[in-house]
Specification:
Layout lengths: L2 E2 L4 H6 L4 H9 L4 H13 L10 E8 L2 E6 L3 H6 L4 H10 L2 E6 L4 H9 L4 E8 L5 E7 L4 H4 L5 H12 L3 E5 L2
Parallel strand pairs: 1-2, 3-4, 6-7
Antiparallel strand pairs: 2-3, 5-6
């Protein structure tokens, strides 16, 4: 069974939340997306046994994207079976899936977020009001990459929700 960090196994299997998990849902520590993805991963476990070893942290939605945050080293497991797990998950959720690793540095997080496009540089911009923005410069778009990066705003929203990072995305000329 995928190891959930915020939901107990019984609640995930039964579909009925205990008082503790219900409180987490009310407080926002756990979302409906977390529950839905957790249940889907559990249902796919018999077909894809590697899912038993995955540590699922949370799911973050933005527009037509769903970021699935998993433990260190679990990205490869989730992308195995020729991408069938992700295709299945994306089909059932009706969203494009991004798999991100929990607890990695900012560069690795951004590389995973913008994959398959490659990052040329990452800079921090200090604004007059004391806040910062992270400027990401990506390689110039190619036609085949266009579909994977069509919704830059959704990727920026995911970065904000997951890391609290405000992104400014630019493309190299």
């Amino acid at each position: 069974m995928p190891k959930m960090t915020n939901i107990c196994d019984f609640c995930l299997k039964s579909g009925i939340l205990c008082a503790k998990c219900q409180a987490k849902l009310r407080s926002g520590k756990v979302t409906e997306a977390d529950l839905k993805v957790g249940r889907l991963l559990l249902s796919l476990e018999s077909t894809y046994p590697l899912l038993q070893d995955i540590r699922f942290h949370r799911a973050v939605e933005a527009d037509n994207l769903l970021a699935v945050i998993v433990g260190r080293g679990d990205v490869a497991r989730l992308l195995s079976y020729g991408g069938k797990i992700i295709k299945n998950l994306g089909g059932k959720m009706g969203k494009t899936i991004r798999v991100l690793e929990h607890g990695v540095d900012d560069r690795k997080f951004l590389e995973d977020l913008f994959a398959p496009s490659s990052i040329i540089t990452i800079n921090t911009i200090w604004l007059p009001d004391g806040t910062t923005e992270t400027r990401v410069i990506l390689r110039k778009r190619r036609r085949r990459m266009k579909s994977s990066l069509t919704n830059i705003e959704a990727l920026k929203e995911i970065a904000k929700k997951v890391r609290g990072t405000t992104l400014r995305v630019e493309f190299a000329r």
